[in-house]
Design goal:
Chain lengths: 109, 283
């Protein structure tokens, strides 16, 4: 398992119904591309986050395929329009099979 | 509930195309997280004969780089601060103690960054923050010393700087520290290397001018450790000194050497009055 992987997410706690919010996510991850070689000339195996998804109350908001050229600690900023209270579910999929998850509640005022 | 736009994908790309015309607003103010009001301009300390105002390196960066420091979520340096928080709370060494055993929380050490390097009576020398941390690690916790500019050490100094943000740098230059400070001052004004450049040639005589594609700052160290876009990691102040001296094509002093400790004290004293900013974001 990759080391020091820590997902973090920023979502407003409350929102007016129908309002568009900005969501920021970052996961600390080395995103080893598989293109580099170590001191002995051996290829360092690829180890990246290959997919990121965000769902709100079961409905998909965004589904991203990540490629090796994306640099360390991938950061996503995107928007969603909210009409009801609920839970954001964020999921990152690692090459090594690990899945990192984070949840955030949001309430409509 | 729909994704409307995917604005930024991963990381900050090269800034090489941001030319001189993109230099930032000179009247900008630095307020981090909407609550920490930084002093980025201050009257020069009395000992500085050639300058009237000291300015944070933040002022010399492009507006895009400046923006990264306004919010901890966007400041890439804060990732390592979180790593250091874990180290702070985890036990190590022969005594089975952690930093938290004595110091409670990192916030209890607020203000420490602002006064280092500082005279240490027990050891009879000026100590940098790194030396103080290693004193804790080896003498109090019974562990192996951390590498001076290694990841664990830089992360910990970033954590300690982060809890002191907004406080004014205030290193003592008189009393027992005076001789070390004078040594640092002499180093600052001594030309080195094949290019025969002293620190002052760039950072005192030419700050605000361009050095090739880069905007020369005053070389203040209130923002260290800094996250640099060029290497995408936190950089310790002695690593930066080493890079600068190397660029004059000289043999450099080693990080943690008495020469760099003295230089750190002197350069820190040139920023007395500016806010502690670390971890800052620079290019």
């Amino acid at each position: 398992m990759a080391e020091n992987v820590r997902p973090r997410v920023r979502v407003p706690a409350t929102v007016a119904a129908g309002e568009t919010i900005t969501i920021k996510t970052l996961i600390s991850h080395n995103m080893e591309s598989g293109q580099r070689k170590d001191g002995d000339g051996n290829v360092i195996p690829r180890s990246i986050i290959n997919r990121f998804t965000c769902d709100f109350n079961g409905q998909n908001v965004i589904d991203v395929t990540l490629e090796p050229a994306i640099s360390r600690n991938p950061f996503f900023e995107f928007q969603a329009t909210i009409s009801e209270s609920g839970t954001f579910q964020f999921t990152w999929y690692d090459d090594d099979g690990s899945v990192y998850e984070e949840q955030k509640e949001i309430a409509v005022e | 509930m729909k994704a409307l736009a995917l604005k930024g994908v991963a990381a900050v790309s090269a800034l090489s195309f941001v030319a001189a015309s993109a230099l930032a607003d000179e009247n900008a103010n630095l307020v981090v997280n909407g609550e920490i009001d930084m002093t980025i301009r201050a009257p020069a300390p009395d000992h500085m004969e050639n300058m009237s105002e000291v300015m944070s390196g933040w002022l010399f960066r492009s507006s895009e780089t400046q923006a990264l420091q306004l919010d901890d979520f966007e400041n890439p340096g804060m990732i390592w601060v979180d790593d250091a928080r874990e180290v702070f709370a985890s036990e190590s060494g022969s005594g089975g103690e952690s930093c938290a055993s004595c110091h409670d929380s990192p916030e209890a050490l607020a203000g420490v960054r602002a006064v280092y390097p500082k005279w240490d009576e027990e050891h009879g020398e000026v100590q940098s923050l790194e030396m103080q941390i290693n004193e804790c690690v080896t003498e109090r916790m019974g562990g192996e010393p951390w590498k001076y500019t290694g990841g664990t050490m830089v992360n910990m100094t970033a954590l300690l700087a982060s809890v002191s943000r907004g406080m004014a740098v205030n290193v003592a230059i008189d009393g027992p520290a005076q001789s070390t400070w004078e040594m640092g001052r002499d180093l600052y004004y001594t030309r080195t290397g094949q290019l025969e450049l002293s620190c002052a040639n760039c950072h005192e005589d030419n700050y605000g001018n361009m050095i090739r594609a880069d905007h020369l700052s005053q070389g203040q160290i209130n923002g260290f450790p800094v996250y640099r876009l060029k290497n995408a990691k936190l950089n310790a102040v002695h690593s930066r000194f080493k890079g600068c001296v190397r660029d004059t094509r000289a043999q450099t002093y080693s990080p943690g050497s008495p020469e760099f400790i003295a230089l750190e004290l002197y350069v820190a004293s040139r920023g007395n009055g500016l806010s502690v900013e670390g971890p800052s974001v620079r290019n």
